[in-house]
């Protein structure tokens, strides 16, 4: 792996790490959801999830550089897509559970 690829991958991992923090904030908010704060917390969750997905896109954009090998590019893009899909599914399940408990 070249130095450029290594630095790009490091940036990508940092972006994904930031996204994990935003998703953790989302889960905490969903666990505290009640009728008094529902609109506010749902708005926060939407913002945090959007930011996490933007971080995924930023990671993909970074590895789209022409100086990144095709194998690394494909591997990262496949992994990031999988993370985004799992994130979306998990948050949907958590949101449904939180809303049922109200």
TrEMBL record:
The keyword Signal applies. Residues 1-93 form the Pectinesterase inhibitor domain. Keywords: Signal. SUPFAM superfamilies: Plant invertase/pectin methylesterase inhibitor. SMART domains: PMEI. GO terms for molecular function: enzyme inhibitor activity. NCBIfam families: PME_inhib. PANTHER family: PECTINESTERASE INHIBITOR-LIKE, PLANT INVERTASE_PECTIN METHYLESTERASE INHIBITOR SUPERFAMILY PROTEIN. This is Pectinesterase inhibitor domain. It comes from Dillenia turbinata.
């Amino acid at each position: 792996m070249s130095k450029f690829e290594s630095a790009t991958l490091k940036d990508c991992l940092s972006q994904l790490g930031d996204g994990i923090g935003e998703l953790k904030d989302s889960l905490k908010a969903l666990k505290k959801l009640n009728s008094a704060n529902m609109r506010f917390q749902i708005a926060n969750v939407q913002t945090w999830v959007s930011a996490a997905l933007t971080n995924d896109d930023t990671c993909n954009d970074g590895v789209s550089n022409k100086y990144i090998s095709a194998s690394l590019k494909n591997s990262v893009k496949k992994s990031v897509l999988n993370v985004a899909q799992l994130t979306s599914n998990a948050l949907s399940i958590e949101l449904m559970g939180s809303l049922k408990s109200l």
